[in-house]
Sequence to fold (181 residues):
Amino acid sequence: MSSSLGLSCKPGQTLNNTKDPKRNEADKSQDASEEKVDIPSNIAGSYLTCALRKEAKADDLDAQYGCQLTDQGTKKKLDLAASGQRLVWSSNITDGVKITDQAASAIYHVLYNISAANLEALQDKVKNLDVIASWRSDSGQVMPVKQDKVINVLKPAVELEDYEAPIVREQTIQTDRPGSL
Fold:
């Protein structure tokens, strides 16, 4: 004896339990993109600051900028020790830009070394360079937290307590131009 089970639907009616694999994948993707990323308040409330450490010259086509997240209250470099490797530094330009994370005891969180074929190209690169600090979530999603043009967030190296920057050591008072370095 054979039995069969037949299901029928009226036109336009669908079964509620049908699984559409395409829709299911889209839902998962949407869930992942809506993942709540908890950025520590000290990072979210900080601001980006950079200083010129090495200026490029016609005979030396390399420039170096030190960047850090600065605490709004103390105006000092933010302590990122508790953040581990979750803060990721990058830029909008990859060609000729080398980004080097610094030790926690260093003056800056990161150094941006910029090079180009000629001085004009290097100056254009610096003018357009975005410094980006992003937060990596537990799932690996990377979300920009701070982003600005390096030229918009420049401070003198001494304001960031960088007394070792070559550009600072090379500065001297010009006696024929009072008030200048």
